[in-house]
Amino acid sequence: MLDPVTRPPGSLALRCSRALLSPWSRLSLLAVLLAAAATTMVLYEPQRLLSAGWPPQMSGAGAVVVFGLAYGACTAAFVPRPILNLAAGALFGTQAGLAAAVAGTVLGAGISFTLGRVLGQGALRPLLRGRWLKAADGQLSRHGFRSMLAIRLFPGVPFAAANYCAAVSRMGYAPFLLATAIGTIPNTAAYVVAGSEAASPTSPAFLISMGFIVVSGLAAATVAWRKRHGLRPAPAEPTDPSEPRPLAGVGASREA
Fold first, then answer.
1. Quick one: average pLDDT of 212-228?
2. Cα 201 from chain centroid (whole Å)
3. What's the whole-model pTM score?
4. How far apart are CA 173 and CA 170, in angstroms?
5. pLDDT tens track for 152-193
6. At CA 104, angle to CA 102 and CA 109, rounded to 5?
7. CA–CA separation, 47 vs 141, rounded Å?
8. Beta strands in 55-136 (DSSP E)
9. What whole-number distance in Å separates Cα of residue 118 and Cα of residue 122?
């Protein structure tokens, strides 16, 4: 009689570890983390900073650093950046507020990109089969810095959505973070100035910043409308009219 096959020790643990580290398990973990972060932000209501202000026991450069760290965590949890930019200007003024907002933007983008790359890319890349998804993935993978810079310069694409879409693509860390740091400065500065001058809504600085926000939004909508054909499939090449065309049914009858 043949001896029964013995399973190597630790095989159950190995299978469990493989299941836990599978792409879909990591994607599920990412979904749980994002849901928990979003729920925490909803319960905490960070927009209260606009009305209640910064805690009085924190001031100076330390407060700016803490705000930048909190800014990055909030953006990774889908808190809208305009609210945080307005709060940065209202709390710290134009210069310090802009520094904290840009640093927090890059930090939040890096957190989102890392989470998406480590936990979501393995499961989501095989699903890139749709025409729009393939076109977006190809654009970010081949022209990462230029594409991300355009996304950051023209508002309209949600910040967190752009981060996770870039993470699923083959875009590198360096072009992603550099394009984010450069491209978000103009729009971020406009919101920070508006927040710092909110007490005097008729001041030239406030009116100019609000005008820039409106104009940039309209420009982004116009560019998106004009470029909407770029993701459409290329039309089929016309056949040479000089080539003879088979009569209907002839090819089928021959094959039969």
1. 76
2. 32
3. 0.70
4. 10
5. 888 777 888 888 888 888 888 899 999 999 999 999 999 999
6. 95
7. 35
8. none
9. 8
